[in-house]
């Protein structure tokens, strides 16, 4: 089965997701300013995993009516 690239469903969110990725990497002390091909897949996966975790937390908070819908605020 051919691999499908990740697609952003809401185009207006593309820049916010990019900024979020760099923010998470910065929190973890990972340098995303250079050649990303030089980073181990474990580090890239760790950044993506934390992004997903925070987005899920934000969605759960929103559904529960607790506010903090912005994942960068978690």
pLDDT below 50 for ≥5 consecutive residues: which ranges?
none
Number of strands: 0
The total of helices stands at 2
Give the integer mean of the pLDDT values: 83
Oligomer designation: single chain
Could you give a short account of the major beta sheet? Answer: none
Helical residue percent band: 40-55%
- The gross shape turns out to be globular
Any idea how many domains? 1
Helix/strand order: HH
Instruction: Give the helix/strand class.
Output: mainly alpha
Distance between the termini: 37 Å
Radius of gyration: 14 Å
Short description:
The protein has 74 residues and is mostly helical. The chain is built from two helices and no strands. It has one domain.
Topology:
Layout: H1 14-28, H2 41-64
Structural notes for this entry:
It is a single chain. With about 70 residues, this protein is mostly helical. The chain has one domain (about 10-74). It is built from 2 helices and no strands. It has helices at about 15-30, 40-65. Helix 1 (about 15-30) crosses helix 2. The longest helix is centred in the C-terminal third of the chain and has 24 residues, at about 40-65. The model has no long low-confidence stretch (mean pLDDT about 85).
